[in-house]
Amino acid sequence: MKTVKKGDRVKVEYVGTLEDGTIFDSSDRHETPLEFTVGAGELIKGFDDAVVGMKKDEEKEVKIEPKDAYGEHNPEFVKEMPREYFPEDREIKPGMVFLINLQDGRQIPVRVSKVSDDTVTIDLNPPLAGKTLFFKIKVVEIAEKTTE
Is 88 found in the same domain as 44? Predict the structure, then answer.
């Protein structure tokens, strides 16, 4: 029976949880299996590596450390900004997410971690940075790499 190797296009069903069992993502939420090319860097390294060697209809549970997921939480990515940079007509609370415009025109999401009268502390780390992730993965389709 064929096993998944780098370069294969696969479809997987999955459930991602945190250490406390909280589900942070699943293929059910997207109503379709996740499709990606193995080893192409489309997903976090730990997930990508986990499917290599799996067979169609095989299920697996994996634990992915932060270094193979979204990295460690970096305190340098936590910044204090003047309150005036945020909409005056909205109450700003910890946990809110805003899009910040970069000089090159891209937008990135930032999470509010603390609010005072004069400042808003934002966290530029990915929301799952520093967290160990757990996945239940089931391979539902394997397509060989196509040569063009």
Answer: no
> Residue 87 belongs to what domain range?
75-123
Q: How many other C-beta atoms can be found within 10 angstroms of the C-beta atom of residue 40? A: 12
* Residue that is written with structure tokens 């997410």 in the block: 97
Give the DSSP H/E element, type plus range, for residue 140.
Answer: strand 133-143
Residue 101 binned pLDDT confidence (cut-offs 50, 70, 90): confident
- Alpha-carbon distance values, 95 to 109, 123, 133 (Å): 12, 10, 20
Per-residue 3-state assignment (H helix, E strand, C coil) for 66-124: HHHCCCCCCHHHEEEEEHHHCCCCCCCCCCCEEEEECCCCCEEEEEEEEECCCEEEEEC
Over residues 48-99, the pLDDT tens digits come to 999 999 999 999 999 999 999 999 999 999 999 999 888 888 889 999 988 8
CATH code, domain carrying 100: 2.40.10.330
Sign of CA dihedral 85, 87, 91, 93: negative
Model confidence pLDDT, tens digit, residues 26-37 = 999 989 999 999
